[in-house]
Amino acid sequence: MGWVQKRRDHGGVIFLDLRDRSGVVQVVLSPDTGGLPFQRANSVRAEFVLAVRGQVRRRPPGTENPQMATGEVEVATSELEILNTARALPFHPGDAAGVDEALRLRYRYLDLRRQESWHIFTMRHRAANIIRDFLSKKGFLEMETPMLTRSTPEGARDYLVPSRVHPGEFFALPQSPQLFKQILMIAGFERYFQFARCFRDEDLRADRQPEFTQLDLEMSFVDEHDIQQLTEELLAALFQELLDVELTLPFPHLTYQEAMGTYGSDRPDLRFGLEMVDVSSILADSKCRVFAGTIKKGGVVKGIRVPGAAGFSRKILDELTSMAVEWGAHGLAWFILEDKGVRSPLVKLMEPEEIDALITKMEGKSGDLLLFVADQRQVAEEVLGKLRLELAGRLDLIDNKKYTFIWITDFPLLEYDENEQRLEAVHHPFTSPLNEDLPLLESQPERVRARAYDIVLNGVELGGGSIRIHRRDLQERIFGVIGLEPQEAQEKFGFFLEALDYGAPPHGGIAFGFDRLLMLMLDLETIRDVIPFPKTQRATCLLTSAPAPVIPKQLRELHIQCLPAKIKQD
Amino acid sequence: MGWVQKRRDHGGVIFLDLRDRSGVVQVVLSPDTGGLPFQRANSVRAEFVLAVRGQVRRRPPGTENPQMATGEVEVATSELEILNTARALPFHPGDAAGVDEALRLRYRYLDLRRQESWHIFTMRHRAANIIRDFLSKKGFLEMETPMLTRSTPEGARDYLVPSRVHPGEFFALPQSPQLFKQILMIAGFERYFQFARCFRDEDLRADRQPEFTQLDLEMSFVDEHDIQQLTEELLAALFQELLDVELTLPFPHLTYQEAMGTYGSDRPDLRFGLEMVDVSSILADSKCRVFAGTIKKGGVVKGIRVPGAAGFSRKILDELTSMAVEWGAHGLAWFILEDKGVRSPLVKLMEPEEIDALITKMEGKSGDLLLFVADQRQVAEEVLGKLRLELAGRLDLIDNKKYTFIWITDFPLLEYDENEQRLEAVHHPFTSPLNEDLPLLESQPERVRARAYDIVLNGVELGGGSIRIHRRDLQERIFGVIGLEPQEAQEKFGFFLEALDYGAPPHGGIAFGFDRLLMLMLDLETIRDVIPFPKTQRATCLLTSAPAPVIPKQLRELHIQCLPAKIKQD
Question: How many helices (H) and strands (E) does chain A have?
Fold first, then answer.
């Protein structure tokens, strides 16, 4: 039984490619087969559903198809039943690749009939099983946490669910099971994991979904090293079993500061070099005012050596400069190193010894291009970080077969939020500060480092975690530093503060974007490919047309009403 | 590392029972241990979290504890660190059993520290793994379906989620993944399963939760027998591996009519007998008017033989009669069979031959009690069904160690809903009718049987499923019969009707209440015991106090406002 993939008529004989999830087989009906089956086969179109009975036989010599797993045989059909018909298709599953994504999402069931979809969701299933097996063997329990929970407006925006039983009150869908997994540690479970559905009502820039699946885990009586080691072993098992790829353990570590200083990003892609070098010390007294002036004002000059890019045209160099400016730099200084000397608009403005020192510091060789940005540290690093990625693309430096993992550690605990005019947790307010930085918490809060770690694969943040605060006094101090009044803290997190009072063990954990991990492992473009029923950037399901209006009775029962529409945005 | 379960001081020596999830060990500190560890141990109270280092040694002869797995050893402690303190506890985890459930739910992390909780959630974890292994080996893919989906107000009440991006529109949380799993079959996946979170905003009578977990599966190209066989093998594997209990396959079958006729229930408990017998044919011309009159008006007389209940006092018989009346019967006729003859208020009103025929039909023996209800068939069967359960309890007929499964089949497809004044689907409107009953669909719709099946364990409905409709024309006919205008059907289910147009295979499935299955397997009283963070009957989480009010900005962003409160119910 299966779907008609293709029908061909050849010399009065009907050939059907019949497909099920296991593959395709050729079904043959000749006019002398007998009336009814042949008649029915004659009415069959693409994606009809058939039940067929017949003799499997070797194909006649010369008609074998070596491209096909079943290319040496065919089914000489004696019975054929049409289980269901199919209308003319908006697109054929086999040709879905080129079709507009909106159309594919509207007819997702046709899109999912592609061979590739079958592969993707088989891999997703197997990946989850491998992870479950690994964690089960390590003594983790998979436990479910509530979807209908409490709104704690920290971080992203919550999806709300009005309560019918409690007028004027709302549940929130979880942004992550953070507090519940910490409560499970306080409850003594020691090792928990979950494939948790998480919800964030954010504007969906980039490749985000309003609901996504997170592999979430937490352990008691551990430090950073334990979590990281477990994570590495987990990923090694997954890559080995799913892709037959052997990862090299342990993964390298960079502190946040090192990552920013060398790659201009807290999720650096280490599949290629182009590291940044700080040349401020050489240029502090440069004749060239752009450099010296910036450094005097507390800024830096940082550069990248681009091997083999001395041949870049003026046009390319202008493009790179425009990009740098667009990203926030004042300009981009370039030096082309050739056998016959150095070319740069700045040669005239600088001492030859200065240029020599610069080239030596950058380890420049003939054929290289040197690029520099002079600016405040953050701007210089971010701009060169983006340039670095741009150059890797242009020079095709990235080996797509490589999986390069790295841990980023020692993130700042807090950052100043200009909009809210207050300090905010970089990760979340339950992250433990580094013990040695505790004395700075009130005096220089932005210098306090967190016991947080992100894991980055090929320049994509795959997951992140931290050692949590397990003592009430410290948790209250952190709430205070981020501007939560004691009463507010009590209202929002009182139950959690109380839980810390009853024997909370030291604990920590990590969470991975499971969709994103699969996307990277399967080398796909978007996480929509690994989700059976994804939503669009406007948070719409094109298949079911959700969200949709509801009947007034439903709203009345929930004690809410819609506000009069202001501006129609659709 | 672990929690202090108990502390005893004995002759200056401190004994601590230190607990982690693996068990308890005795930690000993004598004053000569050295200052700091002993001092610290002195300040320790129940549920403090400690790190301890020391020598594991055999306990002194005579002090062993044979009740304890580690009762022969103890830890002579040289180092002790207090990782966290604990306030005086609202209740001790070890004594939680007798504590008010509201208090236990508020401090759920203490309640979960019970040894039994650890057992329950280990079993839950293992059960899920056994099921996943079994289904994976059978070629099923575990696939995720959306939580933010479309409201289709059929069946229970939806939880709604206002959309921020689409003012005035709402998502609904799924009552089950019904349509998505059918779409996955249309997409060609053939075998799907999921542990799916489901949501129903109902008044929580009995043992229900607003969110619960369903083991949901669906197959293509199958009939009832295939689904039932797979289910039986799955349950057999689960009971074998989790409980070491061997189930006898195949499970017996009863049609809905047989179940109602013999047990007065569509989820009969077959761990005991007390089957109903129809004696209408004997009593049609009875002198006793209650019997004859009822039968003449289209009613029936049905009875139960209760072996060994001839000794029931008049008081008990009066109680049973009151119950029968409360459940809707006009009365309860009883006959006590003794060696010396028959006792009954009705003896005087009936011919001796009639009574003899009755006893013969009921296979009555001396020592039995015969009970009869004369009424319309439905009333008589329901009342005797309830009496049957009541009698089994009173006579202690139920073997709690037994697992008795049964399939109930051939449910009616439709039933008349008095409130809505229209026909409604008994299961859901996607259930296929029996082919042979199709001609009755418009003329005698209530006589049409469904290709639906429930699985019942010990009188509890464990799961249910059906073969689905896979042809658009039939689906539209069913929508018509339940009073959905074509336009309304199009608005609500248009996307699904369209999907049926593009090669939908024959398919069917089943879904189990996973929480309820575990509750029964672990012999627990309520499903709250198998859910880490359950809600109360009023759909409240006592731990987090969800639901809760939110700030006005959150509602404005969602384009809704609360209606003014009418009556405060709390």
Answer: 16, 23
